[in-house]
Amino acid sequence: MSASNPSISSRPAPTHLWIIGILALLWNAVGAFDFLATQLQLEFYMGSFSEEALEYFYGLPGWVVVTWAMGVFGAFLGSAALLARRRWAVGLFAISLVGILLTGFQNFYLSEGMEIMGTVGVVFSIVLILVAVFLLQYSRHMVRKGVLQ
To answer: Helix count (H) and strand count (E) of the chain?
Structure first.
């Protein structure tokens, strides 16, 4: 352990941790912004969506808004925790993945989200899941290596 801060590993963080952490933080900041802009109904942002998409977003059930928030803020905070070298990044990324999966279930199986979002929405949802799984597995690996404390 480091003499100056016993909660941070004395093991040096690999360069890939900083690269992945910064990219993850930026990627997930976009997701957090998207969530906030949608929930706050920011006109400059929402003006690019079709009426059908706006109706869909504004009509989401409350539980979906919660799972969407879990997905984006779990990932954003998990990315910050990864950069801070905290092991609770794993839990935050797990919360994010659960949120993403539940939101996707609503969007593609319990509603007409697939028709509204089209192929691009489906592909983007798959990318979100893959990134979330990667970040969860990566953070677990960093805990096992003793990089995250």
So the answer is: 6, 0
